[in-house]
Design a protein that fits this description.
heterodimer, A: 4 helices, 72% helix, B: mainly beta, globular
């Protein structure tokens, strides 16, 4: 999948930069992975998406 | 005021969908619906679910409801139309349906459009059970809270797609509404979940008279279909039990 900068920024705004970077470096995070799929599919995050991501953190 | 022309479909668990096929004859209509078995009213107008049409400006042509009356007799449903602000109601259109039950080795729940077409609008099921008596009573299947797709002897749950192990198919039957089976990222073809009663344990297929399901708010589909197969192929041999409306974050009982 290809992501826009805005889609990535939306996920980081929820997960925080540290968790996001750790995920990118190979420390798998369900919250980040799910957030990226949601952000990609819907071109951004809705309040229910943010709630779902936060429930995984 | 034109009389509605209607198409009545369904009957499984008493779940019925009515399409007003001449809805374009009206400007801003509402519809009055009532079902009867003999002289007994089985569904009141207040129990009928309406949806907005694609413009979101007025009520659409699809009317859905669940007839949970215990009578097994054929129903006669009547539909009348009335324009907003108009004091005159149309003559009644009538149709019939008969509630029926489900008995197959495999039951499959799939995300569909209001027209019944497969959709990639994903499903997310927090909890689902099938029951041998109406209203979520009798014996429930799966009978246990699953800890894997095969944790209960004789029952296998499966799905066309799940996003990750966190959202595996058995999560829809683990008793926790904080977990779910989630088809995030699914295709239209794989947007399904199913239960299988294995013949080694279940020489007689259970008769299912109701289902209780709670869809998570991450569900994007507005409707699901229920189909049954005795081979698991779902390639034309299956029985189509109809289309049901989804209300997110609500425990829905069909039948």
């Amino acid at each position: 999948m290809r992501y826009t900068q805005q889609q990535v920024d939306d996920v980081i705004a929820v997960t925080g930069a540290e968790l996001f970077i750790n995920h990118v470096l190979g420390n798998y995070s369900e919250a980040v992975a799910t957030g990226m799929q949601l952000s990609h599919d819907e071109d951004g995050l809705t309040p229910r998406d943010i709630e779902t991501i936060e429930s995984l953190m | 005021m034109p009389t509605p022309t209607i198409s009545v479909e369904g009957g499984t668990f008493g779940a019925i969908s009515i399409t007003v096929t001449n809805a374009s004859s009206y400007t801003n209509p509402n519809y009055s619906v009532q079902s009867k078995a003999g002289g007994t009213v089985t569904v009141l107008d207040s129990s009928v679910t309406r949806e907005l049409d694609s413009s979101s400006n007025h009520i659409g042509s699809l009317l859905t409801f669940v007839d949970s009356n215990s009578s097994t007799s054929q129903r006669t449903v009547s539909v009348k139309a009335q324009e907003f602000g108009d004091k005159i109601q149309s003559a009644a259109a009538t149709g019939t349906y008969t509630p029926s039950n489900v008995q197959n080795r495999y039951l499959r729940v799939r995300g569909v459009t209001s027209a019944g077409a497969d959709t990639s609008a994903r499903l997310a099921i927090s909890e689902i059970r099938f029951w041998t008596a109406a209203g979520g009573t009798g014996t429930k299947y799966p009978t246990t809270n699953l800890t894997s797709n095969t944790s209960e002897t004789g029952i296998v749950v499966n799905a066309g797609h799940f996003y990750s192990a966190t959202y595996a198919p058995f999560k829809a039957c683990d008793s926790s509404t904080n977990s779910m089976w989630w088809a995030l990222g699914t295709s239209a073809a794989n947007n399904w979940w199913q239960i299988h009663w294995e013949s080694g344990t279940y020489s007689n297929k259970p008769i299912i008279e109701s289902m209780v399901v709670k869809f998570n708010s991450q569900t994007d589909a507005s409707f699901f279909s229920l189909k049954g197969s005795d081979t698991g192929a779902f390639s034309g041999e299956e029985t189509d039990y109809g289309i049901f409306g989804i209300i997110e974050n609500t425990t829905q009982t069909f039948g």
